[in-house]
Amino acid sequence: MAMLGILVAATVLLEAVSATSLGVVTTEGGQVEGKNIRLGYQRHMDVFKGIPFAGVPGRFEKPKRHPGWDGILKATEYKDRCLQLTITLNDVYGTEDCLYLNIWVPHIKSVASNLPVMVWIYGGGFLAGGSMGANFLDNYLYSGQEIADRGNVIVVTLGYRVGSLGFLSTGDSSLPGNYGLWDQQAAIAWVHRNIASFGGDPNNVTLFGESAGGASVSFQTLTPHNKGLFKRAISQSGVALCPWAVNKNPRRFAEEVALKVNCPTDHNMATCLKMTDPKALTLAGTLHMSGSPDAPLVNNLVLSPVIDGDFLPDEPSNLFHNAADIDYMAGVNDMDGHIFTGFDVPSVNSALVDTPVTGRTYSYLFSEPNRLGGLLAPFPSWLGADHADDLQYVFGKPFSTPLGYWPRHRDVSGYMIAYWTNFAKTGDPNRGDLSVPTSWPLFTSNRHEFIEINSKTDGSFVREKLRLRFVNFWTSVLPNLPIMYSE
């Protein structure tokens, strides 16, 4: 026993001495140092929080490169979110100095080298959100630790401007909009230029995001400004072709905001808005929460990207040639619309378009039932996977907070992390370091196959032509119905 104790102590001491860490990392702006944590035997991780990828952005301007810093930047704390509305929509919080990113680097036996990179873009209706996500007892939703550790990939999360400061546009060159998309693009470019210093492969970068973040990922594949910066993309519950993803009449809402902050609506409007208090601007860009079947809540997402002739030189449907070399994965939750429908048609909680195929494409339907279904209003017992239900599984919460989940939840989380990280490594969700419950077929022009993902997923959950009747109605039946005019 004494000899065994000595061997154990020696093993622990040896690992402590040879603990794998990047130490101080040199970036284009200067040196940074994160925090090294031990996850298990010969498994460590460096976590960097709050690295600036651009300078403090000018009001309604594209981001500029950070001027750099002297000494070693201690990157151990998340930075504040970009200025945005509170959940009650009657106040604001955050700061304009918000263009920072966070990095999780796994080390298994040796220091990370040439690892695949996954860059997360958060959702929030282009109005809210942060690189760290929601927080409960210091457990942040968008912590990349579980994905990075289990998938052996580097995970990056980034901040970008939202609300009025990120997407307000006059529809012309005086205030063109899309500043939040330019922030994302600046972060993607920073990753491409600097990630090798963190042990990442700049030629194997995958973007992934959900809701407005999923649409943002789609926009980043379509813009001509990202050529060669990333290789793959995953859009969860949102793409550029969604009806809420592009604001076709930005001038009208800009004038509404201008009137709220006492600015003129003539040719001096943009000049006045640029000099207005940023908190007042943010508060003025609120979401109209009153929904109805005639004016659905989803149509109130008026602070969204615009066709500006620069980042988006044309309609998204005309830009797919820019995404021809991008491997793409996209899917939805089976009841994604419930979060919006609950506002528009409250009684729904009572008892009772084909897109062009670019490169290699995979399609999915996430259907793990909502954990609150039937337990808490307004979550009816029949509720499937609501909007954003997939996030907790992609980010491994059933593993990091096991007491809040059942074993089946860890199963579905394991499936998603495996599919997502395999895809990031190889462009094929079936091939990589992690095993999957069943083979996921390519989506092709003549076979629209998809996989349904839940805790029971096996070969019987590979399906074809997702919601064919609904697609047929929206793309063929509805457009051909006679139009009724009324005075």
Q: Overview of this structure, please?
A:
- The chain is α/β, with parallel strands linked by helices and 487 residues long.
- The protein has one domain (31-480): Alpha/Beta hydrolase fold, catalytic domain (Rossmann fold, 3-Layer(aba) Sandwich), CATH 3.40.50.
- Helix content is 25%, strand content 19%.
- The chain contains 13 helices and 18 strands.
- It has helices at residues 2-17, 145-151, 163-167, 179-194, 212-222, 250-260, 269-274, 278-284, 338-344, 391-394, 397-400, 407-426, 468-477; strands spanning 24-26, 31-33, 35-40, 43-52, 72-74, 84-85, 92-93, 100-108, 115-121, 135-136, 139-140, 154-158, 200-210, 232-236, 327-333, 361-366, 449-453, 462-464.
- The chain has an eleven-stranded mixed sheet, with helices on both faces. Strands 1-2-5 form a three-stranded mixed sheet, with no helix packed on it. A two-stranded antiparallel sheet has the order 6-7.
- A hairpin with a 2-residue loop joins strand 3 (35-40) and strand 4.
- The model is unreliable at 338-357 (pLDDT under 50).
Average pLDDT reading:
88
- If helices are DSSP runs of H or I spanning 4 or more residues, what is the number of helices? 13
Q: How are the strands ordered across the major sheet?
A: 3-4-8-12-9-13-14-15-16-17-18
If classified by CATH, what would the architecture be? 3-Layer(aba) Sandwich
- CATH homologous superfamily descriptor: Alpha/Beta hydrolase fold, catalytic domain
CATH topology: Rossmann fold
Helix content: 25-40%
Overall spatial form: globular
Q: End-to-end span in angstroms? A: 93 Å
Q: Domain count, please report it.
A: 1
